[in-house]
Design goal:
There is one protein chain. The protein is mostly helical. It has 8 helices and 3 strands, in the order βββαααααααα. Strand 1 and strand 2 form a beta hairpin.
């Protein structure tokens, strides 16, 4: 896990799924998810206390955390808890919140949406939907060429190529 500061002014914590206790197989390791620092529940999620993190995030008021940050936390926690439908819903809510973020310029909204798409891609991949994951990773990379987004897309492409060289990101050309 590492933390970095991004241009949209919020600290972002990147979680490697490989460090998660629920990830047992090598086929799911190495994908990165994004959390927004200073959001209720994030410290518990980073510590592996996912249910406590969910409880803290859902109890947070609008004054304590914006909708985007809250839903990003829920997405990561639910993914680590293997509750993939809830994770996907939380990520979709984060995408929606990023689109509607008031007082934000378009580049900020694009960056926010890109991270929500990359998180949803990981959730979908863990939920055994690699085609939907690929679409999200491609959309994330289209929105923002960040290291995290490029990493997840390249890693999925590599894993897909290892399974079947015919089906790769470039041959499927999945778009949202």
């Amino acid at each position: 896990m590492k933390a970095t500061s991004l241009s949209f002014g919020k600290k972002v914590a990147v979680m490697l799924l490989a460090s998660s206790s629920f990830v047992a197989s090598a086929a799911t390791s190495g994908f990165k998810m994004v959390l927004i620092e200073d959001t209720p529940g994030v410290s518990k999620i980073k510590a592996g206390l996912y249910q406590d993190g969910v409880a803290e995030a859902t109890a947070a008021t609008d004054k304590q955390a914006d909708s985007f940050s809250k839903h990003m936390s829920l997405c990561v926690a639910y993914t680590h808890m293997a509750e993939f439908k809830q994770a996907e819903q939380a990520c979709s809510s984060a995408i929606y919140a990023a689109r509607r973020a008031e007082g934000s310029d378009s580049s900020y909204k694009r960056e926010m949406r890109s991270f929500a798409h990359t998180n949803r891609g990981v959730a979908r991949l863990m939920g055994q939907d690699p085609v939907a994951a690929l679409a999200d990773f491609q959309q994330a990379t289209t929105l923002e060429q960040s290291e995290i987004n490029q990493h997840n897309l390249a890693l999925l492409n590599e894993k897909m190529k290892a399974v079947s060289p015919v089906y790769t990101a470039s041959t499927l050309n999945v778009t949202n």
